[in-house]
Here is the input.
Amino acid sequence: MLTLYSYWRSSAAYRVRIALGLKGLAYRQVPVHLVKDGGQQHAVEYQSLNPQELVPLLVDGDARIAQSLAILEYLDETHPQPGLLPRDPLQRAQVRALSLHIACDIHPLNNLRVLQYLSGPLGVADEAKTQWIRHWVETGLRAVEEGVANWTGPLSLGERPGYFEACLIPQLYNARRFECDLSGCPRLLAIAARCESLEAFQQAAPEVQPDAQ
Amino acid sequence: MLTLYSYWRSSAAYRVRIALGLKGLAYRQVPVHLVKDGGQQHAVEYQSLNPQELVPLLVDGDARIAQSLAILEYLDETHPQPGLLPRDPLQRAQVRALSLHIACDIHPLNNLRVLQYLSGPLGVADEAKTQWIRHWVETGLRAVEEGVANWTGPLSLGERPGYFEACLIPQLYNARRFECDLSGCPRLLAIAARCESLEAFQQAAPEVQPDAQ
Here is the structure.
């Protein structure tokens, strides 16, 4: 049985919950509260499992795997059906490039520890912090919107969602939470509408996790 | 012939130069100056090639691929020898997880556009900005240092460097540039010393690029 160390509102953990659902893999979830107790991800026991002190962490037998995209690749290599990525190397690269734009150039600028640093050591006021969030999310998602313009099907695998949607949907969840302007992203919203009707996405949603507040 | 849109001091472009060198692939380099002209990555011609308005971009025939790690995966799938990743899925996941920690949780917080936003809209003073850089680099690299503690060989592929070293060496270059404290990272410095003796790394170094200043 797989074990996922997760936090309901972590968008990186949300990606992995989607991928596990798409593959129909059963897993046990262990909540790691990113705020309580000064952040349970910094506790000695968790740090010994994952020195990166971040969620998610997937435990598969004796193996411990950090980083959501490394977990997605691992799941796709060890449980190939249904695949999360196209088969053609160029199409795989295009999907990975859009996903990495979310995972490297949008999400990390708005995750909890960065927002805490802005408020704390840098003394950034709430309004300016919200502008910071919206700037990176809106700039980044507009580029992703352009990136999906030439797709032949409605989703990254034609009629099926995969790696890309596992990254996009959590980022859109965050964008809505911070009331970002998504009016320039009709294609992404259409992708989201399709995904939201699917069980794998419904069961991965933050609000239905055991640790949701 | 492959074409790489690059900037000498971009650590994401540096990763791809290393990977191309490790695979012995010839390529033409097109410099994109990230500061001059308000940032040439925002110019209409470049934006039409890469809507993400970031370097690197690899052009292979008609294909255009953004995001350094998507490019590394593409090169490894289309030119498998010598491989950049181990063969075993779990070992691949461990290498990807450490690389993604650099690419998602260290580098994006310190790249040029983020530092410009800190200085500009947020009015962060130079000294506080330097502390910000050092905080994320030092915290992140300490976790990477722990991550390599159990390796059986000196490098990620035993005696050979690959995907991981292509991410690590540019990050260490940045760390030194901002005078980060690397005293807690002896294993990473030993890996760097080995890599620096290899031609693929020497030829990818920022200072020897055609656009170096």
Notes: The radius of gyration of chain B is 17 Å. Strands of chain B lie at 2-6, 27-31, 57-60, 63-66. Chain B touches chain A through 45 residues (CB under 8 Å).
